[in-house]
Design brief:
With 121 residues, this protein is an alpha/beta fold. The protein has a single domain, classed as 2-Layer Sandwich (Transcription Regulator spoIIAA), CATH 3.30.750. The chain has five helices and five strands. A five-stranded mixed beta sheet has the order 1-2-3-4-5, with helices on both faces. β2, α1 and β3 form a beta-alpha-beta unit. The chain starts with a strand and ends with a helix.
Length: 121
């Protein structure tokens, strides 16, 4: 899968990694798996590392679809925050579009160490 993740249940942290060409379907699949995962509790911190990913077919409506899926799980979103690490300016712009529509705070970074610091991990 282009986007895999691990859950640290003790720290309530999700570590996601994107590799290769990542398209709309890949992001939607990840979000659906994420939201259905009982190990992820409210107040989670999520680090999404997309530095090894390349842009696939990303539509302008993707972020609306993800935001709608997030809205269906308001309790899980409460107190949560996400850091997205991207490899370039185009990816930064795309990820920032999601951040504008997300239900919980999302910050886009170009440096994983800074993202980890912001998340407190």
């Amino acid at each position: 899968m282009p986007i895999d993740y691990e859950v640290d249940e003790v720290k309530n942290v999700v570590y996601a990694t994107g590799r290769g060409a990542v398209a709309d379907e890949d992001f939607l699949d990840y979000v659906r798996r994420f939201l259905a995962d009982a190990r992820i509790r409210p107040g989670y911190r999520e680090l999404v590392d997309l530095t090894a990913a390349t842009k696939g077919a990303i539509s302008s409506g993707l972020f609306d679809l993800i935001a709608e899926l997030d809205r269906q799980q308001p309790k899980q979103q409460h107190g949560s925050r996400t850091a997205i690490v991207v490899p370039d300016n185009e990816s930064f712009h795309l990820a920032s579009q999601y951040g504008l529509k997300a239900q919980a705070p999302v910050i886009v970074f170009s440096n994983a160490s800074v993202a980890r610091t912001w998340l407190g991990i």
